[in-house]
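Researcher: I'm preparing a figure for a lab meeting and need a structural model of a single chain. I don't have an experimental structure, so a prediction will have to do for now. The sequence is pasted below. Please return the structure as tokens so I can convert it later.
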Amino acid sequence: MSQLKEIAATISNYIKSGIESLNEDRTKNIFKKLGIAVVPEIRLESIENIDGAAQTVGYPVVLKGIAKQMLHKTEAGMVELGITNEVRLKEAAQNMKSRAGEGFEAFLVQPMIQGRREFTAGMFKDMQFGPVIMFGVGGVLTEALKDIVFRLAPLSEADLDDMLDNLKANALLGSFRGEAAVNRPELKSVLRGLSDLAMACPGIREIDINPLIITPDGSPVAVDGLMILEKTESCDACVHQKIDFKALYSTFYPKTIAFVGASARPGKWGHLLPTNAYAGGFKGEIFLINPKGGKIMGRHVYKTIADIEGDVDLAVLTVPAGRVMDLIPVLKKKHVKGMVLITSGFREVGDQGRQLEDEIMAAARKAGILVIGPNTMGLCNPHASLYVSGANALPLPGSTALVSQSGNLGTQLLAFAEQQGIGIRVFVGSGNEAMITIEDYMQALEPDELTRTVVLYIESVKNGRRFFESAAQLSKNKPVVVLKGGRTQVGERAASSHTGAMASDAGVFNAACTQAGIIQVEQPMELLDMSTVFSSLPMPKGGRVAIMTLGGGWGVVTTDLCSEYGLGVPQLSREIIERLNKRLPSFWSHCNPVDIVGERDPEIPMICLEELLKWDGCDAVIHLGIHGRRILFNAMAKAVLKTDPGITRETADIFMAGYIKEEENYTRYIVEMTHKYNKPVIGVSLLTDERSRTLYPYDDLDYKGVFFPSPERAVKALAGMVRYRNWLDSTKN
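Model: Understood. Here is the structure written out token by token.
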């Protein structure tokens, strides 16, 4: 710790002196103080004694030239490798001195470090997320391969292991072409040193170690280094305005709602929102406000909110942006706690809109009013029969909290949740997040007992570091699932060092999510898929999957998917095979996946399922093709009715009723087995129709039956659960 204080003081003095970057030898002196192994070297200001220096370190040598304002020596021709004699050494030195001109400072003479493996490590300050540590394949292939891993500082022991394990070329960390495996403790010490340095010295903008050579005995040695410095300035705009979470909670449980800007025209926001509120069965009072008065939807309309007797808890505004400011004083008089500002025309339209938004937020804060939005699609809380959103959807009360920066996407997910019976804790379209940000919602949901899963659609974050810290804290108690809009890399940031140039907004965001335990998905529907399994099934203890299938093809496809998404498909034990031999035909698969070869005996899939759940060699079961067979049988019954005059409608109905009952029994049995063995069981339906659902709840059972229409969705959902389990386990170590 004393070394860090000394280094911090040195860096501070450099910055005060106007120094903007540290050349290689100064940087490596700091590395040495951190305990990072660096290449030995001799510094010379002239060519005169350069051969003596080379003989001291021992030929072959590396010659480097240092010059003012010259950050990247290799590109400038200021590095010569493998010099074996005095003539070539002096010739190289003379050329370097000529290239540097008046900016020349010194030569560095170093021994050639032997080693076949080169890595790169560094740190850069991200504008959103703060100091970020980088590790990857180094040398001349750094930019070409871009095999790099990012993690936010400070790094935990789990973060360090994760960085090394997630390198695509992590085979290079093992023994390689006769050289010893990399000394992982020493390598982690390098990354930890960069992390500690970044946290102790906010004046360092970038650090670059490239290459970090692994010697034949496995030791990492820094043979080059660079630091970029900057003056640190406080940013008042970055200071977060604290939110009253009790007031936010009460906003989702209002007793009175005023719709300001109510309209008699169906389809307009002023008509749609109160319509949904009435249709949802809101138990409190609803007031409609329109300057024309009269009646809307057969209900009395107040000309102004001031005409309402008593206080109002929640105001929903659909009036033009220019009229919002004038409403703040009367909302304050009515003791309005929360405002849902549906209206657009603020910062999303330019500087003038931004200024208006800031002024309204300042006035609302002064009036003690929490503002959701502006430019939002509204909110809903099924637990309070509160449906004030742009979706004509009334999802059931549940445990999934959904926060979306895209109102359209959020409301589409609400409609699907209603259709599939997926329960919602709360929904909010966060809009411009002028006052309440995605981080505030995460913090508010952490202590909420009704929330089991938090689902987020994000396009940008206002404060990356706060997002990371809020998500990491929330993830310790509840899974957080994120779909990030704008994931593709449009371009690379401008940076002075190779380290900074390797970064992208998407790369840093992905690193923050991984480190915070967030489960990222790629498609909107996966948000609800993940919320479904997290809220309906027990957590897996590991990633070993047993697969049971009605046909071989689906088993093969699912096995491949498991491999692609990091799940294991272990071989069956001899005991299980022997037990299944007693119930299945001799030509069954005798392996995992278990192919029950199209058997129609309804007891066989139940017996097989329990045998697999009993097995301590698996942590979860995926079963395919058993659920949904009634649809095929129904089609067969229709065909028989058309072609066989001896079969009556009554006979066909009895036939189908039997299959429907079988499916119902099977579905309930799955949930009972889930409870009995406390392992997640995920189904893939053979076919789906209007009766099919994702969730099958039972009043007397805590867990639910979960069925997806494809193996891909089932495997992805289970893989997300396993990733979250692994993250939880890593935080405990």
